[in-house]
Amino acid sequence: MSCEYSRAVLHGYLDGELDAARSLEFERHLESCRECASALGAEEALRSSLQRSGLYERTSPVLRQKVQAGIKAVNRARAESRPVAWRWLAVAAAILLVAGVSWLAMPSLRGPAATTVSAAELIDAHIRSLQPGHLTDVISSDQHTVKPWFDGKLDFIPPVKDYADDGFPLVGGRLDVLNGHSVAALVYSRRKHFINVFVWPTPQSDSPLHISNVHQGFQWVHWRHQGMEFCAVSDVSIPDLSELAQLINQ
Amino acid sequence: MDGSANSGSDRENISDVLNPQDRVRFEELILPHLDAAFNLSRWLLRSRADAEDVAQEALLRAYRFFHGFHGGDARAWLLQIVRNTCYTWLEKNRPVELVTEFDEEMHAPPSPTPEALAIAGDNRERLAQALQSLPPRFREVLVLRELEGCSYKEIAAITSIPIGTVMSALARARQRLQRFLTQPQEASREL
Fold first, then answer.
1. Among 3.30.360.10, 3.40.190.10, 1.10.10.10, 2.60.120.280, what is the CATH number of B114-188?
2. Gap between the Cα atoms of B134 and A169, Å rounded
């Protein structure tokens, strides 16, 4: 082992980053090379000075508070963006309520006025489902068990498919009520989180994914596809929800 | 480690993604490394006041990027963001410090005796001065290794230098530090 080489290896040795064989090799070299032995002593002295020096600079309590306040401010900014969305939702809900009432007045035109479902209702339904024993009425990862289970309980048949291969295993299904209408709730899991996909029929044409803001830590995507209206609610990220939506639409 | 947190892209609107569980995880996994974040910024910026601002900014960036943290070494993940935030700040406010100096192949000076180094190193002020005199790229590896106790693997992850060159970077940084410490005081002011 040349001494130049040792000068680099010496640092790996000092830092305990050499494997056993190279460590041993260097120790053998140390016995015969006074220059390396002295250099190692100097490095060790320097290291112990640095570590005893108290040069490590700790955070002041003020910074700690500032960081925590900063995080709260970020959260608050998000929270404040909600009322705006809520207000628009309220307006939309009011308009749709009127529409719903006119549908009531003209039964022949009446489809399930499902778009009047409010954010609060969706979140409530999702949270309710997470209470112990409420998630599923039929527990099965087999789409051929879940789908027939809905038969006779609803006046429509929701599309049910297991997407375990794509990272969204089917957990089961249940009946739920949104805006006074019975809807199918399909439950998928995503890395230990649950996603409720609410499904109900709609007379309206297909629509692209509509992505919600965060409400109480939950969010959803909403879309219409081939006569069905879908709303996937969860605490998983929007990209995950969108991915599931794409799978369902396939 | 997930490199995406470090892409430095704020363009993406990701501010709505952090859910309550992630907030708790952030507090449990990341906030305990606030000292590490501050220490690194303080040594990179060589000023407590600037370090407070930049460390705070880095923590908030980490918070916004947290969805990109998929487990693993939380300290290294955070320090990577801290380091990038510091360099961005330096580029903007003190670009002169980042001018890559010509890395001359130093002739290895006769190594000082352990005794001489111990005496020089016992002077805290002088040690701090010596550390501050190093170019940032050398200073950071020393701070991460000696003050923060990072492994070569962690240093490589934080500084984005190949793991194979961490050892030689440390060797050169230590050589410079020794040279400063054992130089006559007058001459060392020039550095």
1. 1.10.10.10
2. 55
User: In tens digits, what is the pLDDT along chain B, a chain of 191 residues?
Assistant: 444 444 444 333 344 446 777 888 898 899 999 999 999 999 999 999 999 999 999 999 999 888 888 888 999 999 999 999 999 999 999 888 877 554 444 455 556 676 776 666 678 888 999 999 999 999 999 999 999 999 999 999 999 999 888 999 999 999 889 888 887 665 444 44
Q: Can you read off the two tokens belonging to residue A195?
A: 């996603």
Residues A134 and A238 in one domain: yes
Structure tokens at A45: 């002295």
Contact B111, A38 (CB under 8 A): yes
* Residues of chain A contacting residue B21, judged by C-beta atoms under 8 Å apart: 217, 235
For residue A147, count other CB atoms closer than 10 A to its CB.
Answer: 19
The answer, for A72 touching chain B at a CB cutoff of 8 Å, is no
3-state SS assignment for residue A197: strand
| Among the four given CATH numbers 3.30.750.24, 1.10.10.10, 3.20.20.210, 1.10.1740.10, the one describing domain B3-97 | 1.10.1740.10
To which residue do tokens 């409530």 refer?
A124
Contact residues, B window 113-132, toward A, CB-based 8 Å cutoff:
113-115, 117-118, 120-122, 124, 127-128, 131
Number of domains in chain A: 3
Structural domain containing residue A9:
3-52
How far the first Cα of chain B sits from its last, in Å, is 37
Rounded Cα gap, residues A206 and A185, in angstroms: 20
Locus of tokens 């962690």: B154
